[in-house]
Amino acid sequence: MHVPDGFIDLPVSIGAAVIAAGAVAVSLRGARRELDERSAPLAGLVAVFVFAAQLMNFPVAGGTSGHLLGAVLAAVLVGPWTGALCVTVVLLVQGLVFADGGITAIGVNVTDMAVIGLAAGYLVFLALRAVLPSTRAGVVVAAAGGAFASVPAAAGGFVACYALGGTSSVPVGTVFAAMVSVHLLIGIGEALITAFTISSVIAVRPDLVHGAAGLRRPETLAVRPGGTAGTGPVTPEVPDDLRDPAGAPPTQDLAAGSRSAPWSAEESR
Amino acid sequence: MAGTSHVHRLLLPGESPVHRLPAHVKLPATLAFVVLVVLTPREQYWAFAAHAALLGVVVAVARLPPATLLRRMVVEVPFLAFAALMPFLSTGDRTEVLGLSLSVDGLHSAWNVVAKATLGVAASVLLAATTDVRDLLVGLERLRMPSLLVQILGFMIRYGDVVTGEMHRMRVARESRGFVARDVRQLPVVARSAGALFVRTYERGERVHLAMLSRGYTGRMPGHDATSTSPAHLLTASALPLAAGLVTVLALLTS
Predict the structure, then answer these.
(1) pTM, to two decimals
(2) Within 10 A of B121 (CB to CB), how many other CB atoms are there?
(3) Would you say B129 and A99 are in contact if contact means Cβ atoms under 8 Å apart?
(4) Which member of A20, A218, B107, B188 lies 3.0 to 4.6 Å from A110 by CB, making a disulfide possible if both were Cys?
(5) What is the enclosing helix (H) or strand (E) of B95?
């Protein structure tokens, strides 16, 4: 789905490149807030992950296979700004090094996938997060919805570029119908793979899922009433209030855990 | 590590003038060439042959094996299949070719896209075959690409093989346990591998970052010894876009 050279005329390609450059500039500022200013290595490795995830083909229907766009997956995992940078970098490498997508069309590709696709998908994710209950399942379902929306949105962005500067005479309506219907199907695959991926990351390292940040409270250790430190038997049960994310705070905090707490209430079950 | 990365394997090392050009002049030259190709009117068939001949001259000067380059151009094949549909979908005057009713304009469009996309892919393949990826990064930095973006690119290229290797090992592990991805029902398994891959990749990123901090990293990579741009470099690099510009101008004038 990468646009090659010569498919979109030069003025629209340049316009798209300007939009893409502006979006990258805004994302660079936003990413400084999401990641520490110095963590280029992290963003780079997330970009590798997006690149690798795009290499994972999944069967769609009738022997054809699709691959992940990964924009919403990246945005939910590391935040929208860093996610946009990662997808942009992946598209740059594909265009400059692997000849996948034209050099003059890099702006069009970045605008479609890293800007329009990601923004539309992430907005749907945020809207669903606001509506759905604030649980892990809610985050997973919202990510699936966002991922589903991102694929036809990116296709729609391509159709808009084509309508403005397409070099062929295939009617815009035909292109729109073909692109959006095919990408609705691909969107289902994108939604499923994003949901399963997010749910498996959330199960082991919920602290790594940016889109689930609101779910986590700092880990707390609680002393049950009546227990005496050092002499009483160690109670193996986890208090109910630790199991329930929405429950009342524990009776007494011994220590507020950090992001890298060696164990969490969830894992001790 | 240069010999091990699959990104670096794209480089076909050599000592030709094309190889020796610094990336920050080679990159704009490639871009200018592709822009000129895109500007060429589609009916001027001879002009596309001339552009292709110019790339042929570059291949000869760089002493690259043409067969290898042609094999690398298969990236384009899915797109060619799409272009083949255009004559059927376009509107306008129709013509009979081998008993099929095809749109004349659609045939022109398909030719236009195939010719320009093929020349674009050929130019990118040439760039990748003659430029070390690290030089490309230095070149992008000298072309004023934001440093953070260049660093992200650098890490992506440096660790690309490590992560795809990890992914490959996970696939081998799945398949040696009898897993076959037949249809959508196997999706959860593949996606769970993707989740595990993300956690491993992110944790590797954390370790790399800490290791770099302990070696005094302050948010910028240490300066590369920049090769100075000599007038000779500029002259060599501008040969291709100048010749292509001549072809495009002639094609525009005679159309």
Answers:
(1) 0.81
(2) 25
(3) no
(4) A20
(5) strand B94-97
Domains of chain A in start order, with CATH, are: 10-212 (1.10.1760.20), 217-269 (no CATH)
* H/E stretch holding A94: helix A80-96
* Chain A from 69 to 88: CB within 8 A of any B CB: 77, 85-86, 88
If asked whether residues B122 and B202 sit together in one domain, one would say no
- A95 close contact with B: CB closer than 8 A: yes
Helix, strand, coil abundance in chain B, percent, nearest 5: 75, 5, 25
Per-residue pLDDT tens digits for A102-122: 888 889 989 988 999 999 999
How far are the Cα atoms of A54, A74, B135, B147 from residue A94, in angstroms, in the given order?
11, 17, 17, 19
- Rounded (10°) angle between helices A136-165 and A10-34: 160
Per DSSP, which regions of chain A are E strands? Answer: 57-59, 65-67, 220-222, 253-256
CA torsion A125-A126-A128-A133 (nearest 10°) is 120
Query: Which of B7, B86, B146 is opposite residue A97, by nearest beta carbon?
Result: B7
Domain count, chain B: 2
Q: Token pair of B24, please? A: 């920050």
The amino acid at A113: M
Same domain, B148 and B202: yes
pLDDT (tens digit per residue) in A120-133: 999 999 999 999 88
Measured CA to CA, the distance from residue A204 to residue A76 in angstroms comes to 16
Contacts of B154 in chain A (CB under 8 A): 44
- C-alpha to C-alpha distance for A122 and A140, rounded to whole angstroms: 13
How many other CB atoms sit within 10 Å of the CB of residue A267?
A: 10
Q: How many residues does chain A have?
A: 269
Range of the domain at B180: 144-214
B27 in a structural domain:
yes
Number of Cβ pairs < 8 A linking chain A and chain B: 257
Q: Distances from the Cα of A190 to the Cαs of A78, A153, B100, B189, in angstroms?
A: 18, 13, 37, 14
The answer to which of A20-34, B66-80, B156-170, B203-217 has the lowest mean pLDDT is B66-80
Contact B165, A33 (CB under 8 A): no
- The answer to whether the beta carbons of residues B55 and B126 sit under 8 Å apart is yes
